[in-house]
Amino acid sequence: MQIRVGIVGGTGYTGVELLRLLARHPGARVTAITSRAEAGMRVDALFPNLRGHCELSFSEPDPAALAATCDVVFFATPHGVAMDLAPQLLAAGVKVIDLGADFRLRDPATFARWYGMEHRALDWLEKAVYGLPETRRAAIREAQLIANPGCYPTATQLGFLPLLEAGLLDPHSLIADTKSGASGAGRAAKLPNLLCEAGDSFSAYAVSGHRHQPEIEQELSCWAGGEVRVTFVPHLTPMIRGIHATLYGRLTRDIDAADLQVLYEARYREEPFVDVLPPGSHPATRSVRGANVCRIAVHQPRPGQVVVLSVIDNLVKGASGQAVQNMNLLFGLPEAMGLEDVALMP
Ligand SMILES: NC(=O)C1=CN([C@@H]2O[C@H](COP(=O)(O)OP(=O)(O)OC[C@H]3O[C@@H](n4cnc5c(N)ncnc54)[C@H](OP(=O)(O)O)[C@@H]3O)[C@@H](O)[C@H]2O)C=CC1
Ligand SMILES: CC(=O)N[C@@H](CCC(=O)OP(=O)(O)O)C(=O)O
């Protein structure tokens, strides 16, 4: 029996990436995909890469209709949509995976401050599980509602995690210097993402505060055993897919590069989607394009300092691939099912 999947927000980049991944997933089939703007249009007319793989047309986002035809619904929508539409699905017993941020921040006041809106589904916020399998696999298996992590938070957390869990980092001086491709900003037309604006150029943005900072701090604080503070600086790069996080930390104990390498290899040995590279490596975003993998290298430029390089495809391990990984866990399927494609090269 195949899992029946619905996608709310099927015309965005994470929506079409879900369709690409699920087209080859042996345990799931998409039964409904919504768009208000394109309702009635065939999906493969908008996304020709799906010709021969998707016979559906976009429909209006109607929770009652989705509840009748789906076992799980992905929300690939902007913030504020899932908290209004998901409760009806959840009440009907449907599982929900929100790729947006509605259920990521535990504290409603923090959510309101960073997202500029009050939370409108507080009972479900309490029940949601933050869907980073590398930290919360057991809870994800038992959940009904998953808050799929943000793209920058995925790369940043996986990079810092082994050191913080081991109590080896000063938790107040973390720096995450991160770069994203333009697909991270979504498919809606925005001036800074035009080719003539973003191409052949490079700049930081949201330096005085980005909404991923509280998400990163919330999650890392759980595993560090105390408050973590991170200086988080995102940049827009003229590429389509990819996130590169350069992560800096101060070590609290005398530990050399060889031991750091052992620590990372041991932490991620059993993880199917985290690849710790050999000493001295410099992972490139190109090495993860289209693949649900985070590649990590750990360096020690001088005693007392550590630099971790962490790369993901923002649309795969940073969004839709991780969401499918969570779906596999929710339904007791092999975690890697449908996610074993090799990255594109070149
Ligand atoms: N792009 C990325 O790399 C990542 C994105 N995310 C998050 O995933 C979510 C989706 O991102 P992305 O695919 O880039 O977004 P897009 O802007 O590309 O797409 C948004 C989709 O949501 C639909 N939508 C918008 N408003 C509503 C509404 N009120 N009700 C129902 N559907 C609506 C749109 O269709 P229509 O308006 O026609 O209904 C569209 O299909 C966002 O929350 C984003 O922050 C998370 C990690 C990475
Ligand atoms: C390049 C770019 O603009 N990136 C987006 C990240 C979007 C994302 O993945 O985050 P959420 O799911 O939390 O919205 C940004 O900085 O807003």
Describe this structure in words.
The protein has twelve helices and 13 strands. It is an alpha/beta fold and 346 residues long. The protein has helices at residues 13-22, 43-46, 63-69, 82-91, 108-115, 122-127, 133-142, 151-165, 195-198, 212-224, 257-268, 316-330, and strands at 3-8, 28-34, 72-75, 95-98, 129-130, 145-147, 174-180, 203-204, 230-236, 243-250, 274-276, 294-299, 305-312. It folds into two domains: 3-127, NAD(P)-binding Rossmann-like Domain (Rossmann fold); 152-314, Dihydrodipicolinate Reductase, domain 2 (2-Layer Sandwich). Helix 1 packs across helix 12.
C-alpha termini separation: 37 Å
pLDDT under 50 segments (min length 5)?
A: none
CATH topology of the largest domain: Dihydrodipicolinate Reductase, domain 2
CATH superfamily of the largest domain: Dihydrodipicolinate Reductase, domain 2
- Structural class, by secondary structure, is alpha/beta
Extended strand count: 13
The set of bound ligands, ions and cofactors reads: NADPH dihydro-nicotinamide-adenine-dinucleotide phosphate, N-acetyl-L-glutamyl 5-phosphate
What's the average pLDDT? 97
Q: Tell me, what's the shape? A: globular
How large is the count of helical segments? 12
